[in-house]
Specification:
Blueprint: H1 17-67, E1 79-80, E2 83-84, H2 92-96, E3 109-110, H3 117-121, E4 131-133, E5 137-139, E6 142-144, E7 183-187, E8 210-215, E9 220-224
Antiparallel strand pairs: 1-4, 2-3, 4-7, 5-6, 7-8, 8-9
Length: 230
């Protein structure tokens, strides 16, 4: 009988160690690139959301002024957080609650519009302050607190007296103020170039090389860390 010719079976080719390492390296590089892009997109989204929130707060300040003969909300604390209640009259959230669709009650509430997403990602902090009010506006060579100082116990209503530090001022009193270039509030962190920065807050700017700021014309933008009024 004729002999049956057997075809040799094909040998299974396996990855060599070098090929396997190359594949792993490529996957790692792709994963790193994806994470980097994702992180950049997230930071940009957070910054945009924070700016949008600031613009909404700015609109609420403008509406408050319209209801109070042009007087800024206050008196306010220099350092502000997202928490408010009807007893904390120095909190900007308490004063603006009616203009932001909220109601100040005795139980402490969280104002979502005063929560920066980037700041929240770094939580928890020992202190909740995340914004600083501009309490030192230069007017004719004199430093004036336009919001009024909530630390001063003064029941007077002297909004026309620009020299009274205890009460908020009418914005129109600052006739020489370049409203579009002077910030009204901005992100707070331990590196802010202002005296007596409280402890237990964000150790560095939550938006990297910039801070978000609301200006006295109530527009919001990102500013460099060394921003100075032109």
């Amino acid at each position: 009988m004729p002999r049956t010719n057997r075809q040799p079976s094909a040998r299974r080719k396996a990855f060599t160690l070098i090929e396997l390492l190359v594949v792993i390296s490529i996957i790692a590089i792709l994963a790193g690139l994806t994470m980097a892009v994702s992180g950049t997109v997230r930071k940009s989204t957070d910054r945009t959301k924070c700016l949008t929130n600031m613009r909404t707060v700015g609109s609420a300040i403008g509406t408050h002024m319209a209801d109070h003969e042009g007087v800024l909300p206050g008196p306010l604390w220099t350092w502000q957080s997202c928490w408010y209640d009807d007893r904390d009259t120095g909190a900007i959230g308490t004063i603006l609650a009616p203009y932001l669709g909220a109601t100040a009650i005795s139980e402490k509430q969280k104002m979502d519009l005063l929560v920066c997403p980037s700041w929240q990602r770094g939580a928890p902090y020992r202190q909740d302050q995340s914004f600083i009010m501009n309490v030192a506006v230069m007017l004719n060579g004199v430093s004036v607190n336009p919001w009024g100082d909530a630390d001063l116990d003064d029941d007077s209503d002297a909004a026309n007296d620009i020299n009274d530090p205890a009460v908020p001022k009418r914005l129109l009193q600052f006739t020489d103020l370049p409203l579009s270039r002077v910030w009204a509030l901005q992100d707070l962190d331990a590196l802010n170039p202002v005296p007596k920065v409280p402890g237990g807050i964000a150790k560095k700017p939550v938006h990297g090389e910039q801070r978000n700021a609301l200006f006295f014309d109530f527009h919001a933008e990102s500013i460099p860390l060394d921003y100075r009024v032109p």
